[in-house]
Amino acid sequence: MIDKQLRVVLAEDSVILRDGMVELLTARGCAVVATAGTASELIAAVTGHRPDVAVVDIRMPPTHTDEGIRAAVEIRATLPEVGILVFSQHVETAWAARLLADGASGIGYLLKERVARTSEFVDALHRVAAGGTALDPEIVNGLLHGGRRSRVDALTPREREVLELMAQGHSNRSIATLLVVSERAVEKHVAAVFGKFDLPATEADNRRVKAVLAYLAESGAS
């Protein structure tokens, strides 16, 4: 069975970089349905095309400060079914926390200089489009250490490591591989995080997402 082609809107004000990314994504089987050089063009393109995911740079014309991520927050509020992957050379912790405030599902934030292979970027796109999360460790670290962290401070160093990897979208099995421990050990750490974050088991709740959101919300507080 052939996988559904991923539909992408790409927002990048650098024409050379934008054209290069279109070529790379097309070569990887993605369909770039529209490109944008400004935040207003991005919002119009996403509204018109309803892509699976929008790739957004933070700093766009006219002021080159935070127009892109402001647009991403607006898209998140009005079209939550569209995945958002912030792809920038800038770490904007406050805006990242705001973008994640209503849920980590379908959100990514990667730093340009830390993506070593095109395959990593495309994998992150697919993960975000499918409702997953893709956060660069530097973004997670900035969120984790950016504000009041009463419950986060209660975590052991290993529990914090596990939580950071959860926030990056890793499964328990993937975390076990990265930390070179058993999957059962990861399960115990995850359970400890749930306990310290006061997240009891219910049939309806996704405690994994709630745990990530809990510490992102705390670290984003002023």
TrEMBL record:
Gene3D superfamilies xrefs: 3.40.50.2300
Highest taxon listed in the record's lineage: Bacteria
InterPro entries reported in the protein's UniProt record: CheY-like_superfamily, NreC/VraR/RcsB-like_REC, Sig_transdc_resp-reg_receiver, Tscrpt_reg_LuxR_C, WalR-like
Domain HTH luxR-type intervals: 148-208
Residues bearing PTM 4-aspartylphosphate: D57
Alphabetical UniProt keywords: DNA-binding, Phosphoprotein, Transcription, Transcription regulation
UniProt keyword annotation of Phosphoprotein present: yes
CDD domains: LuxR_C_like, REC_NarL-like
Biological process, per Gene Ontology: phosphorelay signal transduction system; regulation of DNA-templated transcription
SUPFAM superfamilies named among the record's database cross-references: CheY-like
Protein name as catalogued: DNA-binding response regulator
